[in-house]
Amino acid sequence: MDHRVSRRLAVGAALCALAAPALLASGPAAAQGWPNRPVTLIVPFPAGGNTDILARAVAAALSDGLGKQFIADNRAGAGGNIGGAAVAKAQPDGYTLLFSTPGPVAQNRLMYKSMPYDPDRDLVPIVLIANSPLIVTAKKDAPFKTLADLVAAARAAPGKVNAGIPGQGTLGHITSELLQASAKVQFTNVPYRGTSPIITDLLGGQIDVAMDFMSSYVPLVQSGTIKALATTGAKRSASLPDVPTVTETGVANFEASAWYALMAPAGTPSEVIEKTNRVVNAWLKTDKAKEVLASMSMEPNGGTPEELKAYIASEVAKWGPVIKGAGIQF
């Protein structure tokens, strides 16, 4: 071989060798120095609700902790599946994350005939942020004072008790189904478009009970305008410490809570997962975080990505039979 050709080949090989590390470092697997530009935090529900409020508080904490702006981006629709799909299909470089409720990562797969993504395959867990129990309330002049009274009334007259729920397939809906299955009673679920119309009809006496997120009902319970029969968490809520849990009233092993978690596209670098997890866990221990969560009747969680993964699996296992038994499908 001509020595000039050989020399050109050698130089070319050397240049390739020098370029290879740079090419590798530019891919998502490295993510050195992340974040070095703003990060989008997709919130799969409309602005203004508790989910959005908490997401923006977490985004602010991440901005402070990591030195780059985290921007909440509301992508509502299809029970959270639109926002979930946007993250599942995003580049796994750490610059698109999901602020999720149970629907997009656990429950929707059990209700929707077709999902635009596979939560287990396309998303990876970062951290469980908080949970929020629901509350079972009754109109002021209801003939029952406790959940045990409600169960007795429903057994005596199956289907006669009207239960307001915030829409088909919502956590309020499947919590009602879980309570009916666990207590072996039958309610007539009355679906509404959100919380406000439920409260209006509960105050007006058009429905007997409601099963919904706590925060909007706490002031009404405290003022004596409606009755609180039980909360659905594993322990009593700090917002209403005198109200027993469903389990305390005699329905064994009952727990139903909303929860909020951060997820990332599958393949996101471990550095992104670790940094985000660390900042959120630190924030959850601050007085500011406790104040934000308490204002919405939420409890802080935290923990590792592995613990969140196991928790999601347990939620799928718990709600699967309930949703199938109730025939909830979209």
UniProtKB/TrEMBL annotation:
Protein's UniProt keywords contain Phosphoprotein: no
InterPro entries xref list: BUG, Bug_dom1, TAT_signal
Pfam families in the record: TctC
UniProt keyword annotation of Signal present: yes
Designated name of the protein: Tripartite tricarboxylate transporter substrate binding protein
Similarity annotation: Belongs to the UPF0065 (bug) family.
Swiss-Prot/TrEMBL keywords: Signal
Signal peptide: 1-31
